[in-house]
Design goal:
The model has no long low-confidence stretch (mean pLDDT about 95). This protein is flat. By secondary structure, the protein is an alpha+beta fold. It has 17 helices and 30 strands. The protein binds adenosine-5'-triphosphate and manganese (II) ion.
Length: about 600
């Protein structure tokens, strides 16, 4: 029998159908038992009255993969208007353990951080699924519009690039065969190059921004709808494209994602087709914010988040539209390539589009002659030499052109009125996470970064310590002497290597004792040997004599000998053989959180 989907059930009333999907949840009520089956189109209610059928799944957990064959019956209670009765159930993949997060509830009863910690599972939740189906629809609508109405050609620009196109510190650098490369912040350069080829171009580009702040509207990796066009009579034609684009995207989602919008319950943003999105100059925008709130930001070079929110409220109240353009921004706040206004070079032909309180797009006209571009670079006190490739296109003929960049996640967030942009990225990266996983431990490399981190930790925790500089000390006895501490208070930190796993471990013993390799073998489950000094220098940037008992900073599994617990005071080299730290034994244990074992001998 052919597989039928949840969405098709209404067309099969009174017929027997075969469904496949996941056990979402089970409500065993005794006589009548409700199995909710999930497939890619929705949730089906299956009513089980046969005890034997129920027994097959009673002990199984959400996620169990099932085939259910049964009769479709009209039901006013069931969400779909139909349910499946008298089922025969086949368990395809049995799952016995409940998942770590209750994704199968209509709304996950957890905080966003926990939801992100269990991202792979939480995405199975219907509300989350709806967000990302709508996001996919937005992308599809954008492509349809760009190809069918604008006649633009899609381009695919590199994400791994050499020098940065705009300067600034918000770049991630990557090691590229020993050279430094950067992850692209936008495809500005490439889309302008492509205007010289195809006049009208668009893309959905990944972007990377090293935004150190943890806000509700910034990610470090996201996607941007990019657009650029050449040959207009007035630069406002770029705004015309943006306006029609966003209206059609909103309309497309309203038409094609009714189920998803219903699931999310939030009132969708409105941008009526027959209402022009207001276009305020930056100056007018500041004035309106002042008139409406009494807060005077009229001398500020930028709009505050509060002003952005107020302007959208204004547009909604006055025009019934949640979007508003702000145009003619100050040159000081726009990139070097922004086109200066003919009658006032302090202003630029640029715009932002605000949606439901937040910026979603920046764009505008670009400088298009070589001379003008040079001028723009110099005005920002940057070096034209750094922009040679970019400048070459202007040397050899670019028409008047302009475009915009609109954040996909920002757009999804504002359209659906979500509170946090992380909700709109499948696997968000930010200051605390990479691809939704928590950044576990920072890896520290080199003696100075290790020492600085140890001292930072001591200070942050307000612990007492002394930090000494001294001549290199070849033996533990020398160390004790220059530090003025007892021999047994010194900590010897050894980096070992497992012979079978090749994994490095750190073992720490009081200086007057030796390490017992047999005990080490018992603890690690493998034979270990001393790691070679060359490897230690290469992998951790440390000389053997400077390794501190902070194996956690080097991401090593770290063991302390039980004897260390008995020490009131400890002393060790903090990354280099010429510097030591003296601190309380208990504080060291608190900071490092090592594993303990007995692996020392005389
Ligand atoms: P903001 O001022 O909000 O930090 P921006 O002005 O620096 O953004 P632009 O360079 O104008 O950003 O980028 C164009 C669009 O890309 C923005 O309007 C926004 O929709 C999106 N965007 C930019 N940076 C981020 C980010 N860190 N996370 C998510 N979206 C972003
Ligand atoms: Mn911007």
């Amino acid at each position: 029998m052919e597989r039928i989907l949840a969405s098709q059930l209404l067309q099969h009333v009174d017929k027997t159908v075969r469904l496949r999907g996941w056990l979402n949840n089970l409500r065993p009520l005794g006589k009548l038992n409700f199995l909710i089956l999930r497939d890619r189109t929705g949730l089906v209610q299956v009513v089980i009255s046969d005890k034997q059928e129920l027994q097959k799944i009673l002990h199984l957990a959400p996620g169990t993969v099932l085939t259910v064959t049964g009769k479709v019956s009209a039901s006013s209670q069931a969400e779909l208007g139909v349910e499946v009765v008298s089922p025969t159930i086949d368990v395809e993949v049995a799952i016995n353990n409940p998942p770590p997060i209750e994704y199968y509830k209509p709304e996950i009863p957890s905080q966003l951080e926990f939801i992100l910690d269990h991202r792979a599972m939480s995405l199975r939740n219907r509300e989350l699924q709806a967000i990302f189906k709508i996001q996919a629809a937005l992308v599809h609508a954008y492509r349809l519009f760009m190809v069918n109405e604008v006649g633009a050609v899609e381009y695919f620009a590199p994400n791994l690039i050499g020098a940065s196109s705009e300067g600034g510190a918000e770049f991630f650098s990557v090691d590229y065969f020993g050279y430094q490369a950067t992850l692209a912040q936008s495809s500005q350069l490439y889309k302008q190059i492509m205007v010289g080829v195809n006049e009208r171009v668009f893309a959905l580009m990944p972007f990377f921004r090293a935004e150190p702040s943890h806000t509700t509207r910034h990610l470090t990796e996201g996607k941007q709808f990019e657009f650029e066009m050449g040959f207009f009579d007035h630069w406002h034609e770029v705004l015309d494209v943006q306006e029609r684009c966003i209206k059609l995207m909103i309309q497309y989602v309203k038409e094609h994602c009714q189920e998803e919008l219903k699931t999310l319950k939030t009132p969708f943003v409105s941008a009526p087709m027959d209402v022009a999105i207001p276009r305020l100059t930056f100056k007018e925008a500041q004035e309106i914010f002042f008139q409406r709130t009494g807060i005077d930001e009229r001398n500020e070079p930028d709009l505050s988040p509060a002003a952005e929110r107020e302007l959208c409220t204004y547009a909604q109240e006055k025009f019934g539209c949640d979007l508003v353009f702000v145009i003619d921004w100050l040159a000081s706040k726009r990139p070097f390539y922004a086109y200066p206004k003919e009658d006032n070079s302090e202003l630029t032909n640029t715009f932002d589009l605000l949606c439901a309180g937040t910026e979603i797009t920046s764009g505008g006209q670009r400088r298009h002659t070589y001379e003008s571009m040079l001028e723009g670079i110099k005005l920002k006190e940057m070096d034209p030499q750094d922009f040679e490739d970019y400048l070459s296109i202007f040397k050899y003929g670019m028409p008047p052109h302009g475009g915009f960049g609109m954040g996909l996640e920002r757009l999804t967030m504002t359209l659906l009125r979500l509170k946090n942009i992380r909700e709109t990225s499948l696997f968000p990266s930010d200051t605390k996470r990479i691809a939704s996983s928590r950044i576990k431990a920072k890896l520290f490399f080199g003696s100075e970064s290790v020492r600085n981190e140890i001292i930072r930790k001591l200070r942050d925790n307000e612990m007492e310590y002394r930090h000494l500089s001294h001549d290199p000390t070849p033996t533990s006895e020398d160390s004790a002497r220059v530090r003025g501490t007892k021999l047994e208070e010194g900590i010897k930190s050894l980096i070992l290597k497992g012979k079978s796993t090749k994994k490095n471990y750190q073992f720490n013993v009081p200086s007057h004792l030796k390490i017992d390799m047999k005990a080490v073998q018992e603890l690690t489950g493998e034979k270990c040997e001393f790691e070679s000094p060359d490897v230690i220098l290469e992998c951790f940037g440390l000389n053997v004599g400077g390794v501190p008992p902070f194996g956690d900073l080097l991401r090593l599994e770290t063991f302390f000998d039980e004897q260390i617990k008995l020490l009131n005071q400890v002393a060790f080299n903090c990354g280099m053989p010429t510097e030591s730290i003296i601190m309380k034994g208990q504080d060291l244990i608190t900071l490092v959180q090592p594993k303990f074992g007995s692996f020392s001998k005389n």
